[in-house]
Design brief:
This protein is α/β, with parallel strands linked by helices and about 240 residues long. The protein is built from five helices and nine strands; from the N terminus they run H-H-E-H-E-E-H-E-H-E-E-E-E-E.
Length: about 240
């Protein structure tokens, strides 16, 4: 009886953190099963906050592309996205399955960025919030996590060269760097290809994957390697 109660409480806590067992109608299909297996219940956590560590402007651009690809899958059945950050090319989002008119672009205001992100995460009319925020401590991140537990909005935060790498309430900490593009069969630039490292994950298994993006969606290129390096101070682009 006691063990059943503990298991039920575990499931309720995981559900609040975005790891609930999906129903047929609610599951978001990302198409990268080995990556999804790194999370509890083999479910990529939506309705939660993720942080992406970036050491260079190039890393930040690559992480933005990966975040856009994830957002496109989450918004596949509709919904809006708020993007707080530097100017990007709205038409380019179509490649990731996002209609530009479904994205609210907000220029960054450094002293108000955290407040703006928190308020956006409380908005149930949004599906995804993508924000550039350099510093984030545990207390601040807890406020953001509490916001998404109520609204079920998914947040992706691009953190460019933060001074502190202390623990936060984010369910996952990522590092994304560029790989040579995959061939398309025609001359020119190929499809996007990333080295995706899951540096930290709550109740899951860290790992590393080579993932490509094509008009049909995600495609894994190599077998995952678990236990990536935890150091993110000296990141170099591939």
């Amino acid at each position: 009886m006691k063990s059943e109660l503990v298991e039920r409480l575990k499931k309720e806590i995981l559900a609040m953190e975005g790891f609930c067992t999906p129903t047929v109608n609610s599951k978001v299909h990302f198409g990268i099963k080995t990556l999804e297996k790194a999370f509890p219940n083999h479910v990529f956590p939506t309705g939660a906050i993720h942080e992406m560590m970036c050491a260079t402007p190039e890393d930040a651009a690559v992480s933005s592309g990966f975040a856009a690809a994830l957002a496109g899958r989450i918004m596949n059945d509709g919904g809006m996205c708020l993007w707080l950050g530097q100017e990007i090319s709205p038409p380019a989002l179509r490649f990731f399955g996002i209609a530009p008119e479904k994205v609210l672009f907000v220029p960054p205001v450094e002293k108000q960025a955290l407040w703006m992100i928190e308020e956006a995460l409380k908005c149930r009319s949004l599906k995804v919030v993508i924000g550039e925020i350099k510093e984030l401590n545990l207390t601040e991140s807890r406020r953001l996590q509490l916001a998404v537990e109520e609204s079920r909005v998914t947040g992706f935060f691009l953190r460019h060269n933060p001074r502190s790498l202390s623990n936060t309430a984010a369910v996952a900490r990522w590092r994304v760097t560029a790989l040579p593009s995959t061939e398309t069969g025609i001359p020119g630039i190929g499809y996007y290809s990333w080295k995706v490292e899951l540096l930290k994950v709550r109740n899951g298994i860290p790992g590393c994957w080579h993932i490509a993006w094509a008009p049909t969606g995600f495609a894994e290129q190599a077998a995952p390697v678990t236990h990536p390096s935890k150091a993110v101070h000296h990141i170099k682009t591939a």
